[in-house]
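Hey Z.,

So I finally got round to the NAP thing we talked about over coffee. Here's the setup:
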Amino acid sequence: MSTEFNSRVTLVTGGSRGIGRATCIALARQGARVAINYVSDKAAALDTLTRVRQVGGDGAIFQASVEQEPAVRRMIETITTELGLIDFLVTNAGIAVQEHHSELNLESFRRMMTTNVEGTFIPIMAVKDGMIERGSGGIVCVASVAGLRPRPLNIAYSTSKAAVVAMARNFAAALGPKVRVNCVAPGLIETDMIAGMDHDSRDVMRQEAFVKRLGRPEDIAEAIVFLLSDKASFVSGQTFVADGGRITLP
Ligand code: NAP
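And the result:
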């Protein structure tokens, strides 16, 4: 185990389920103290905490919607009091909706931008000054390959994730040299988010992937740990694609 995460406080937004949960567990294995954020599923957040403890880690759960700036700032004060100053941030909380363009409307578009874009901006704004003052910090934003490729049935989602990619790149330029900011862009990952996807579509995506499988939350968690670690000390402003190779298809 590397020592760089030892007792370092890491906030994972949307840490209650899916990719966020796997990230909390992977970070706990490295010795980080994990602040597990959730919005509504307290039982799932507590389950993540149990799993964090099972791997020998430490942490606590914190409720706040990433869309609500006062709530996020209060949460960060509470985390600082209970666990310590925040060293690392993973902006993972997000939502996805599949909509044909005929169903898309301003309200659903704004909802996606509020959760996925403002929900990334607000936590970064709330932790960045502390990281700059202490002269170290790391941020990873969870984007999506949908932010890099056309997704005609996910226009709002794809747009929001492209904004996350740009936001990470710009914060990386602004917050360097002490604070690195990167993105991870997952392909299809087996979580609650894709629970409604039909079997045939999954199968097509599985066959198209060079590795002939869909992604697991742990695949993305390991990429996030790497980007936060000193092993990635020369990597900033980048988007790391983890999708089994599908992005290279025409
Ligand atoms: P998931 O299983 O649906 O979990 C979503 C997580 O986000 C939950 O922990 C949820 O909290 C939290 N959340 C949602 N809205 C929130 C809010 N307003 N404030 C705080 N937390 C909120 O999703 P996932 O598949 O793990 O996705 C995680 C991230 O990866 C998202 O940004 C998603 O866009 C991205 N991603 C996923 C895939 C995929 O195929 N799964 C692919 C590419 C990118 P509660 O438990 O309290 O509801």
